[in-house]
Amino acid sequence: MAIRYPLASDTWDQAEFDAAEAVMRSRNFTMGAKVKAFEADFAKLFGSRYAIMVNSGSSANLLAVAAAVHAPDSPLKPGDEVLVPAVSWSTTFFPIHQLGLTLSFVDIDPHTLNIDLEKLERSITPRSRAVMAVNLLGNPNDFTALRDICKRRGLILIEDNCESMGARFDGKWAGTFGLCGTFSTFYSHHIATMEGGVVVTDDHGVYCALLSLRAHGWTREQPADSPFQIDDDPFVKLFRFVLPGYNVRPLEIEAAIGIEQLKKLPGFIVARRRNARLFQEIFGDFEHIRSQRETGESSWFGLAMILQGRLADRRREVVAALQAAGIECRPIVAGNFLRNPVISRVNHVVHQEITAADELDRQGLFIGNHHYPLEEQLRLARTVIGGLVCGGSCDRMTETINKEPK
User: Fold this and answer.
1) Which of these is catalytic: 70, 189, 190, 370?
2) Contact criterion met (CB below 8 Å) for 238 and 86
3) Distance from C-alpha of 72 to C-alpha of 209, rounded to nearest angstrom
4) Measured between alpha carbons, how far is 2 from 382 in angstroms, rounded to an integer?
């Protein structure tokens, strides 16, 4: 059946195509002036001192954790525990393991789907040094409470904000509460630059570490007052390495597109929040699903559903009915990550019971949100799911839906 309600959609118009064409005509393809301009625009919009563009949100997470390890005076060292929510994308977790740190998994709040702050505090041990907080599906954490915990217990706060660009808590942008925060500009996210990601920070030493780590660990691009600036000879500096870095540089074409996309972000967020309110209205009286409870101002990456009541343990049936009706859906990111086979290959501990993440792993799914109105699509989803509760079979529902005017 044709897709009637996609999970992701294109946010480009002629401005993005013109920007891409201008870069191609310039023949300047590698990281350069457009990247610097995008970084300046991004930092200004989100009120951060620095913004560093990279080639993906996953790379942004990698650099954020690596910078926390390698920045001057950083207390993070191999073996230290980093507290993480049990539900997130894989590349929230892998950089922590890859840098020799230990993942300390904490259950989620069953309503907000973010880390459970009570269980977080009970999971802190003498080896705990940091929290990697994830703003899931657009929803900010309660940063008043979270930052209080971090301050009292001496923990570094890093934000994985890859799914939540444009979200706010207490008037402040999600992604700007910690030592550094990460963003993704992949196709399905709030703005799209093909591939891409950004790290923001207000810390000068972290910024200098990020610059080096992004490009091989060398000393090029370091400001004059950088703690990693060790050589005055400009020729020697071309190939001088100070950190065990990577090559995660972005392209000029991605930055040029990003400059245009950033101009549209406020309108995209308004539309997504409007769709979320409509979703809550349409499903508000439907007791057989639980939606994500908003903290602060979510930017609503997607619209989550936790099946309960007469739909409990029927996710396969719900997914089949939605797909038959042309509605795309997915698991809620990676579910309970502890249930993934790769967990045997990563250094991790669990200090508290994991229950809400297990429920999400079994009962959770989400449908898409977009920058355009979704009333027709959301009502279709309500009809399909409601039909299952009322005893309608997938076959009968599909037949009825196919007869509706497109």
Assistant:
1) 189
2) no
3) 8
4) 18
Would you say 191 and 258 are in contact if contact means Cβ atoms under 8 Å apart? Answer: yes
Interatomic CA distance for residues 120 and 352, integer angstroms? 8
Strand residue runs (E) in 323-389: 329-330, 348-350, 364-368
Q: ∠ CA(388), CA(389), CA(391), 5° rounding?
A: 65
Could you list the beta-strand ranges (E) of 297-341: 302-307, 329-330
CB-based contact 56:250 (threshold 8 Å): no
Tell me the pLDDT tens digit for each residue of 235-277: 887 899 999 999 999 999 999 999 999 999 999 999 999 999 9
Task: Describe the crossing of helices 252-283 and 375-389 by its angle, rounded to 10 degrees.
Answer: 50
pTM for the model: 0.94
Task: Give the chain's domains with CATH numbers.
Answer: 14-259 (3.40.640.10), 265-403 (3.90.1150.10)
Maximum pairwise Cα distance, the chain: 77
pLDDT in tens, 120-135: 999 999 999 999 999 9
Residues 6 or more apart in contact with residue 21 via CB below 8 angstroms: none
**Two tokens at 34?**
């457009």
Residue 314, classified by CB atoms within 10 Å of its CB into exposed (0-12), middle (13-18) or buried (19+), is middle
Does residue 232 sit in helix, strand or coil?
Answer: coil
Q: Dump pLDDT digits (tens) for 85-113.
A: 999 999 999 999 999 999 999 999 999 99
DSSP sequence for 60-128: HHHHHHHHHHHSTT----TT-EEEEESBS-HHHHHHHHHTT-EEEEEPBPTTT-SB-HHHHHHH--TTE
- Tokens of residue 278, six digits: 């409509």
Q: Which residue shows structure tokens 């979270």?
A: 146
Residue 33's SS3 state is: helix
Dist. CA 270–CA 297, nearest whole Å: 11
| Residue 18: how many other CB atoms lie within 10 Å | 12
189: annotated active-site residue: yes
Q: What are phi and psi of 330, to 5 degrees?
A: -145, 160
108 bridge partner residues? 115
